[in-house]
Amino acid sequence: MSDLVEPSGAPNPGVWSAADVLGFDPFDREFLRDPYSRHREMSAPGALFRTRAGLLVATSHELCATLPRGPRLGRGPGGRNGGDAGQPAASVL
Q1: Residue 63 and residue 4: Cα distance in Å, rounded?
Q2: Over the chain, what is the mean pLDDT?
Q3: Phi, psi torsion values for 27, nearest 5 degrees
Q4: How far apart are the first and last CA of the chain?
Q5: In this structure, are residues 24 and 38 in contact, taking their beta carbons and an 8 Å threshold?
Q6: CA nearest 26: which of 39, 13, 10, 12?
């Protein structure tokens, strides 16, 4: 993202809150009381959910377990790290 803007529309110096990135506040009491409702909303369209900020979030256990092991995101040959099996190919959130 080149131009960061706060939800209010005001320019942002580059600091986003978790709510800005995720589209919900993970520290909200209601979310902490029942995170499963939000997870169902996020996983309804499929195993990958795109946040307002463009972050891809894996919502299935299978995908969460598979992504870090793949050569494009995890460790090993074929990744962005030039194939060094001991180095991560990319950061995974």
Answers
A1: 30
A2: 74
A3: -105, 0
A4: 17
A5: yes
A6: 39
Burial group, residue 15, by CB count within 10 angstroms (0-12, 13-18, 19+):
exposed
**C-beta of residue 79 within 8 angstroms of C-beta of residue 72:** yes
Quick one: pLDDT at residue 31? 94
* Cβ–Cβ under 8 Å, residues 85 and 75: yes
Structure tokens belonging to residue 26: 């993970």
pLDDT per residue over 41-64, tens digit each? 988 988 888 888 888 888 999 988
Distance CA 48, CA 68 (A): 14
Task: Confirm if 77 and 83 have CB atoms less than 8 A apart.
Answer: yes
Residue with token string 């992504």: 67
